[in-house]
Amino acid sequence: MRIIFHIDFDYFFAQCEEIRNQTLKTKPVCVCIFSDRGGDSGAIATANYIARRYGVKSGMPIKFAKARLKDVESAFLPADFPYYSEISQKAMEIMKNHADIFEYVGKDEAYLDVTKRTEGKFSNATHLAQQLKNQIRAELKMTCTVGISGNKLVSKIASGFKKPDGLTVVEPENVETFLGELKVGDIPGIGKVTEEKFAEMNLKTIADLRKLDIFTLNKMFGRKISSYMYNAARGIDDDPVAERADTIQYSRIITLKQDSKDFEFLSDAIDEICSDLHQTILKHKKMFKAVGIQFVQSDLTNKTKSKTLRNPTSSLDELKKASIILLQEALADQTNDVRRLGVKVSELSDMEGQSSITNFF
Ligand code: DCP
Ligand code: CA
Ligand code: CA
Hints:
This protein has helices at residues 12-20, 49-53, 62-68, 81-96, 122-140, 152-159, 175-180, 192-200, 206-209, 214-221, 223-233, 263-283, 316-332, 351-359, and strands at 4-9, 29-34, 42-47, 75-78, 101-106, 109-113, 144-149, 167-169, 249-260, 286-297, 302-313, 338-346, 349-350. By secondary structure, it is an alpha+beta fold. Residues 354-361 have low confidence and may be disordered.
């Protein structure tokens, strides 16, 4: 039996803003990704929990958020990715120190396998998680939410259960009851559309979902997705926590304003993503030798394409060029619409080091 933590920081970008300006803590804070169309065009990256009480959500147009907050004093701040990366790296360091195996998931999120150091005991694990939360609070002035269970899937669901500043432990004998009461859409990967489909069949909770046999699910979703759903509804998952550091690659993924497979639309988005990503690359003085793009398609499946460049570079132009070529290739046989779009760079090297080497040639 494993013991696994899923840790996710609360309202991450907005909380980063709060820690460098304490006066923000008492009002709604929205972190905005302004588009280059100027004015208020663009989307909300995230908002603190005060702003959420007014209905502000990630991905919402900035204009909508402003309308919802028009009667209250609130802060709309432009996203500062290099700063969030810096905080993220500190957070990852602290988490790594509490793990036997550490898996980086995203800027504010990781899985920790703690089986060995807790001797497989949930009481020890709960204590360890509390210590970890305390250290994060002391050193970063931040809160995070932890889910603890015997596998990644249930821990992930558990960390979403009580936010912010939560800690939810689901011991093996409680998995069935815990999941049963949650909504079908609480299973990672089950989105609005799938949830609707189940709702039409009068299946709302995960316990309801368990009434469907695997053959019915197969007919609805195909083998791969249905076996995932079938197992997820029962809290079954044996995907191991796999060592993955955040230093191997930098990436940026966004949810598109609409699902699409239109080249013009997607290449505009690629352009923006590359510019953001490039800030991080420069900030860390890195060169990259590989570029990849990722589609999360409307049916939630993933598609990735990547290429290796001839030489390491830190050029934004080359990043954009490579990404656009990959986009063209990926769209060539595309049938699904794309829902989320990402770009990543890997095979990183230090700018200074490299330039001094090339100086010798
Ligand atoms: N993000 C974004 N656009 C989105 C969703 C998220 O730019 N549509 C960014 C901003 C978030 C960060 O990613 O701060 C982490 O995303 P999460 O989904 O973990 O959301 P938050 O950390 O903001 O909030 P929560 O407290 O719900 O975890
Ligand atoms: Ca988060
Ligand atoms: Ca997250």
